[in-house]
Amino acid sequence: MGFEDIIPLLNSSVRFAVPLLLACIAGLYSERSGIVDIGLEGKMLGAAFAAAAVAALTGNVWYGMLAAIFVSCCMSMIHAIASINLRGNQVISGVALNFLALGGTVFIGHSIFKRGGTTPNLPKDVRIGPIELPFAAEIGQVPFVGPIYEQLISGHSIIVYFAFAAVPITAWVLMKTRLGLRLRAVGENPKALDTAGISVFKLRYQALIITGILCGVAGAYLSTSQGANFSENMTAGRGFIALAALIFAKWKPWNALWTCLLFGVLSAAQIRLQGVEFPLIGEVPVQFIQALPYVLTVVLLAGFIGRAIPPKAVGQPYVKER
Amino acid sequence: MVENQTQTAQQPSQAAESISAIDLKGVSKSFGPVQANKDINLTVKRNSIHGIVGENGAGKSTLMSILYGFYTADAGEIFVHGAKVKIKDSSHALDLGIGMVHQHFMLVENFTVLENVILGAEGDHLLASSKAAAREELTRLANDYGLDVDPDAIIEDLSVGQEQRVEILKALYRGADVLILDEPTGVLTPTEADQLFRILEQLRDEGKTIILITHKLREIMAITDTVSVMRRGTMVGTVATKDTSPDQLAEMMVGRRVLLQVEKTESKPGDKVLEVENLSVTDDIGVPRVKNVSLDVRAGEIVGIAGVAGNGQSQLLEAISGMFPPLLGEVRINGKKIEFSGAGVADEVRRMGLAHVPEDRHKMGLVTTFEEWENSMLGYEDDPKFGDGPILSVSNARADAQKRIEMFDIRPQNPRLKTANFSGGNQQKIVLAREMDRDLDILIVGQPTRGVDIGAIEFIHKQIIELRDQGKAVLLVSVELDEVRALSDRVLVMFDGEIVTELPPTASEKEFGLAMAGLDPAQQ
């Protein structure tokens, strides 16, 4: 594999990594505030559908994006009510949302579009298209660095840049702002905040709104930027991989970036490796290669990253009285 | 932040001496059927250290939580510096200049001191400026009150005493001029407690008002100016500390005369009930904890084990009670050897006549989310009196629990109440009742009165002595030297996993002190 092969591989890695990264950062806000979010998958799926459906109906992809964020936030608020106000089991609430999204999108999709749950293909101008960065063509002529800029860095949709920008922004918010300090505190010891006169409920709601927005963007990316329509269960477990990546990243934004990129590379490599003859082994079954990223997740999680200590109060509903 | 400080600075100068810092009038609060505070009146003078004593569950913490805005009172009026206020929440209380240091620290463990101090009082959306301001303020507070803590240290790495300082700093940073401390010395070593008292005195001298909640009379006598006594949700009275005595306070707390001294007769030791021979215990990670310990306990005597916490007492108890297998050595009950191999050793040991009140009632003695009657039979579910075969007779179990509640004066007298809702003393009585109300030959009891109030301590001590007088053997382990000396007939001193010496309980405190530090008093 030469240099020319690596850039397209990395390019598709980035595209695979983006929805993971958005969902992972979304989960980071939620879990840092002390709320387990198994429902990342469902929120992304709901958002993907909303984006594709609204874009198809209105002919404007930005309406689709808004719809995606709205749907995802609504789902996030259901999770918030169940786990913050009603002190329910956060895992169960998340699982319920996943099922709701899985069935709900197909059901509503079929009743509107009569295509068995998929939405119509969006024409190119009703999708979030790639952006050419300035001087891409010119710099592309420069050897080595040029192609990296032209083909790898330039030419992605705005969402990709947004996702990568979300990492330093999140790191900055967490460490340098009041909101970040409180978010970190509420996930560790909510009582410390409550006795300092800060509302635990309000903070956790804020965190879940941010989670909702990011999941919404991730969903919209899948159906209106990476793809051109919605199809049943199109998230295909990305929400869960994002959750694994979050643990893997020890709930830290920069780690989340590297982890999601690693998963992206694995996913991209997986497609490349299908049908390739290996020395000695011969052709490896497609299913095995497809399973590779997941196997690696398990192996790495089990043995290589050491203990990942979650925020101390994660999963525990906050009860004021003893 | 800046406004708060100017406020605080002005208040003492404006203060007419007659206006008190805090005035509570007719405050009541109930949690469901439990009335925690009944028509409480309290006046706290400015520039004073005001103690509030009462047994566990007397309503002290609830009252202070109302003042701090953590709970809202059902009825009553609150005046702060003479002005009537309705405290909505903790941030409102903080605005009024009321700060609280909770019994269980409200700190974020993986944050730095600085982050904990500014949490909730950041002032600005960005942290940089507030951090700088807080750093400056911490230096000032450290100079003024001797509250030295490294602002960049992580809380986890601090000692308990330092963590408490951070809590005090948090309150002062928010401009508190009334500082409430809830059982502040429960977790401190005596030296740390002394340091705390010096700080509190200094704060008072600088114009702050301190409210100290405790159930330790010694502290009240040592440091407070005025003391209010609470009992079962009511305010019994307020007296000047210099006009009162521990005995009088204890009587006010409990509502009757309390014996602060234990009365017991000479022991009449009988046959050896428990024999421990050359016992060695190594913990999970291979560290030797008990080294070649031999001891025996006879019927009708109490043998105490004294020592500073962490010198192998816990492991010794766990080994004897069959919870953790020893590496070497032998334990015999009534001459019968305990087989440490296989499962169910603890159960087997119980069948041999040993009852065990574990050191930590929350970790080992009770399931706090269970109802009282469930805990009352925990570990003895196989007893035929609780039903036949696999079917549990709930009514029998509850009746049995009710009987024990009366025998051991457990309050509230409700076997259906969740165990977590009982006070520490009553929880301990639940464990004691379960272990003592049966046919036993030897009682092994660890820290019988840790976190237990005076009235209950007296009761528990009496029960243990009564058991001895019935001719049972008792092995007592406690880190409270006073307790070991008061109860035991013989005292073994444990240091670094070994029994270093045996002393009579009448030996001097100095002799015990030397032995507990691993020095042989005979050689000194």
How is this fold's topology laid out?
The complex is a heterodimer of chains A (322) and B (524).
Chain A: H1 3-32, H2 40-58, H3 61-85, H4 90-113, E1 130-131, H5 136-139, H6 145-153, E2 156-157, H7 158-176, H8 178-188, H9 190-195, H10 200-226, H11 238-248, H12 253-273, E3 277-278, E4 282-283, H13 286-304
Antiparallel strand pairs in A: 1-2, 3-4
Chain B: H1 2-14, E1 22-31, E2 34-44, E3 49-53, H2 60-67, E4 75-80, E5 83-85, H3 90-95, E6 98-101, H4 113-118, H5 127-145, H6 160-173, E7 178-182, H7 190-205, E8 209-214, H8 217-223, E9 226-231, E10 234-240, H9 246-254, E11 272-282, E12 288-298, E13 302-306, H10 313-320, E14 328-333, E15 336-337, H11 345-351, E16 354-357, H12 361-365, H13 372-377, H14 394-407, H15 424-436, E17 442-446, H16 454-469, E18 473-477, H17 481-487, E19 490-495, E20 498-503, H18 509-516
Parallel strand pairs in B: 3-8, 3-9, 6-7, 7-8, 13-18, 13-19, 16-17, 17-18
Antiparallel strand pairs in B: 1-2, 1-4, 4-5, 9-10, 11-12, 11-14, 14-15, 19-20
Helix pairs in contact in B: 15-16
Q: What does this protein structure show overall?
A:
The complex is a heterodimer of chains A (322) and B (524). Chain A has 322 residues and is mainly α. Chain A has a single domain, classed as ABC transporter involved in vitamin B12 uptake, BtuC, CATH 1.10.3470. Chain A has helices at residues 3-32, 40-58, 61-85, 90-113, 136-139, 145-153, 158-176, 178-188, 190-195, 200-226, 238-248, 253-273, 286-304; strands at residues 130-131, 156-157, 277-278, 282-283. In chain A, helix 2 packs across helix 10 (200-226) and helix 7 packs across helix 8. Chain B has helices at 2-14, 60-67, 90-95, 113-118, 127-145, 160-173, 190-205, 217-223, 246-254, 313-320, 345-351, 361-365, 372-377, 394-407, 424-436, 454-469, 481-487, 509-516, and strands spanning 22-31, 34-44, 49-53, 75-80, 83-85, 98-101, 178-182, 209-214, 226-231, 234-240, 272-282, 288-298, 302-306, 328-333, 336-337, 354-357, 442-446, 473-477, 490-495, 498-503. Chain B has a six-stranded mixed sheet, with helices on both faces. Chain B has a six-stranded mixed sheet with strand order 16-17-18-13-19-20, sandwiched between helices. In chain B, strands 2-1-4-5 form a four-stranded antiparallel sheet, covered by helices on one side. Chain B is globular. Residues 1-16 of chain B have low confidence and may be disordered. The chains are: A mainly alpha (322), B alpha/beta (524). The A-B interface holds A 175-182, 184-185, 188-189, 191-198, 312, 320-322 and B 31, 68-71, 89-94, 100, 102, 106-111, 115-116, 118-122, 124-128, 130, 170, 420-421.
